[in-house]
């Protein structure tokens, strides 16, 4: 009997999104792509989507250039590229007008993305089916997604019924997205078999996280029952609360008897080394070390592993307030572990009462926040659900889609008291087309709409972040945050603030004032010195470039050169600062 083939995908984007805040830069992606190809085991690579485009803007880079650069080498060798797509929310955390959603698929197809993985955190097909049609119109492959969780409602039959609707709408592929890694292997295997028995031609791809420890069993079960493609990761960002490593997955499936591709281990080690280099460069400063640890506690609360870091930070944030309230009532304070157990129990209490939303972005955050605020209000002697914001109420009232389960009577009553109304309307109907507004503003600002309207799309999708990117504020903010993160790491190693400053200034040239006067960073057209914003940390200078101007006490404008050139590491004199001759204006580190 011929062995059944299993393909592998490298979820390079999600490896980083599940580990920290940022994604590799365009130049880094261009370096890793050929090495991924050389590994020889991946039929697919996740290149973008999710938060990829947004975080590029946040650190002041153009995501369109990054996507095109990353997909190009894979396109050339026939490796399929795929992206993550939040359906109604597209590439952000709140709903998107239909005309912007439609444009997204045209842009992403033109940029070299083959497959779009469309999901709705509520598994509401009304939020997925339009995207299936938009993707097909644009020439992309729509991979309709089932958000996996474990509850009395989320059975194999429940998911198979949703899959039927998505396949009927034209989806040629189905993804089982087990973001929290809490899908039970037996249920997942049964679900795959139910879909394959009726639709053997449908490609099924499994995406699981390794946090609670079920992922390897789940992978084996779905493959035994007909799954075609398995998402994997590579070191140093595999395992923990991220994804299983390709080496282990390939070994397990090969020894079970599946036909799987071999791994070029020299290339694997090269990719591992490069990825670590990217982490050391800047990405690691924004990664939570807790995401490298697995935890079976996640099975109890059902929350995604990537949330554990933020959840612990939130818990610490309210711990003092809760214990102060307990102290005032004559009760013993709670330890962090005791409070964590209470939080998990509260999540388990709240989740069914708000309709069992699958615990994926953003609904996992909503459920966690309800539980956390309930613990705080309980310590204050107030009832549950008294500190829920508009986003949470939007989920409960049906504005994001239909909840899988029923909302508890006490919450329905609370909604009535507040004058809120529940809705069963199509969520998209609340968000009218909006592209003309962005087209008009781009024309007014003299901004190019970009190749294949990609700049127009980016502006319409991430309006505030795009404005900050265009103005340069995003890059400036990021570089300041990066330097602060680096300084913090040095302080963790026992360095004093003075030591940190000395370390930063090592191998740097001090740019000093040649005379006493006022520091100015720009001169306007008539030669008059005017205050301006400081240059960004990280700005590059060549030998002999102008660093700044100095207006001396005689009103003369003196140009201050950038010494031997290099990268700006610190600005010591702000715009308009008064300095004396010999004072340090800034430090430039030579290359």
Explain how this protein is built:
The protein is built from 22 helices and 18 strands. The radius of gyration is 27 Å and the shape is globular. It is of the alpha/beta class and 591 residues long. It has an eight-stranded parallel barrel with strand order 1-2-3-4-5-6-7-8, surrounded by five helices. A four-stranded antiparallel beta sheet has the order 9-18-16-13, with no helix packed on it. Strands 15-14-10-17 form a four-stranded antiparallel beta sheet, with no helix packed on it. Residues 524-532 have low confidence and may be disordered. It has three domains: 7-291, Aldolase class I (TIM Barrel, Alpha-Beta Barrel); 315-428, no CATH class; 507-589, OB fold (Dihydrolipoamide Acetyltransferase, E2P).
List the helices and strands and how they pair.
Blueprint: E1 7-10, H1 12-17, H2 26-39, E2 44-49, H3 52-58, H4 63-77, E3 80-85, H5 98-110, E4 115-118, H6 125-138, E5 141-147, H7 156-168, E6 173-178, H8 185-198, E7 203-208, H9 215-224, E8 229-232, H10 246-256, H11 265-281, H12 297-301, H13 308-328, H14 336-353, H15 363-379, H16 390-397, H17 409-417, H18 435-445, H19 454-461, H20 463-471, H21 473-492, H22 497-505, E9 508-512, E10 517-520, E11 522-523, E12 529-530, E13 540-541, E14 546-552, E15 557-561, E16 566-571, E17 578-579, E18 584-589
Parallel strand pairs: 1-2, 1-8, 2-3, 3-4, 4-5, 5-6, 6-7, 7-8
Antiparallel strand pairs: 9-18, 10-14, 10-17, 11-12, 13-16, 14-15, 16-18
């Amino acid at each position: 009997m011929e062995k059944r083939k299993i393909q592998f995908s490298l979820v390079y984007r999600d490896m980083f999104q599940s580990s920290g805040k940022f994604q590799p830069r365009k130049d880094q992606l261009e370096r890793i792509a050929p090495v991924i190809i050389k590994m020889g085991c991946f039929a697919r690579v996740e290149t973008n989507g999710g938060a990829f485009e947004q975080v590029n803007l946040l650190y002041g880079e153009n995501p369109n250039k990054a996507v095109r650069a990353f997909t190009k080498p894979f396109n050339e060798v026939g490796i399929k590229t795929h992206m993550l797509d939040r359906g109604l929310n597209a590439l952000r955390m709140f709903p998107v007008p239909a005309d912007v959603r439609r444009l997204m698929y045209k842009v992403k197809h033109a940029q070299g993305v083959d497959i779009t993985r469309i999901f709705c955190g509520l598994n509401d097909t009304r939020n997925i089916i339009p995207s299936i049609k938009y993707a097909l119109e644009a020439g992309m492959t729509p991979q309709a997604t089932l958000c996996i969780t474990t509850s009395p409602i989320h059975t194999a039959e429940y998911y198979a019924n949703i899959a039927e609707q998505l396949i009927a709408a034209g989806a040629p592929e189905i993804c089982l997205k087990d973001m929290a890694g809490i899908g039970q292997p037996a249920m997942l295997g049964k679900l795959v078999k139910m879909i394959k028995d009726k639709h053997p031609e449908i490609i099924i791809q499994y995406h699981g996280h390794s946090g609670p420890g079920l992922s390897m069993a789940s992978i084996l079960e779905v493959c035994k029952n007909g799954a075609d493609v398995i998402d994997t990761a590579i070191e140093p960002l595999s395992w923990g609360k991220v994804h299983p490593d390709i080496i282990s997955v390939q070994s397990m499936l090969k020894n079970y008897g599946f036909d799987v591709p071999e791994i070029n281990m020299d290339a694997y080690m090269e990719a591992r080394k490069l990825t670590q280099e990217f982490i050391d460069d800047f990405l690691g400063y924004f990664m939570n070390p807790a995401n490298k640890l697995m935890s079976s506690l996640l099975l109890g609360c059902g929350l995604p592993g990537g949330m554990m870091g933020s959840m612990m930070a939130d818990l610490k944030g309210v711990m003092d307030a809760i214990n102060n309230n307990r102290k005032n009532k004559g009760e013993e304070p709670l330890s962090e572990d005791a409070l964590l157990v209470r939080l998990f129990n509260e999540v388990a209490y709240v989740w069914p009462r708000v309709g069992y939303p699958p615990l994926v972005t953003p609904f996992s955050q909503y459920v966690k926040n309800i539980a956390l605020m309930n613990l705080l209000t309980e310590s204050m002697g107030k009832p549950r659900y008294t500190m829920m914001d508009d986003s949470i109420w939007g989920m409960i009232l049906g504005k994001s889609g239909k909840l899988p389960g029923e909302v508890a009577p006490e919450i329905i009553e609370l909604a009535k008291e507040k004058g809120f109304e529940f809705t069963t309307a199509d969520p998209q109907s609340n968000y009218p087309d909006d592209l003309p507004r962005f087209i008009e503003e781009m024309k007014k600002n003299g901004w190019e709409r970009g190749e294949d309207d990609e700049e127009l799309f980016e502006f319409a999708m991430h309006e505030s972040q795009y404005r900050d990117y265009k103005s340069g504020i995003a890059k400036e903010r990021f570089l300041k945050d990066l330097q602060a993160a680096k300084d913090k790491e040095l302080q963790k190693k026992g360095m004093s603030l003075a030591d940190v400053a000395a370390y930063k200034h090592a191998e740097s040239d001090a740019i000093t004032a040649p005379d006493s006067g006022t520091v100015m960073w720009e001169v306007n057209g008539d030669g008059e010195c005017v205050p301006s914003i400081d240059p960004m940390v990280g700005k590059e200078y060549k030998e002999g470039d102008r660093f700044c101007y100095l207006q001396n006490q005689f009103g003369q404008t003196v140009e201050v050169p950038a010494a031997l050139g290099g990268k700006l590491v610190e600005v010591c004199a702000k715009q308009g600062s008064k300095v004396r001759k010999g004072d340090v204006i800034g430090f430039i580190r030579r290359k």
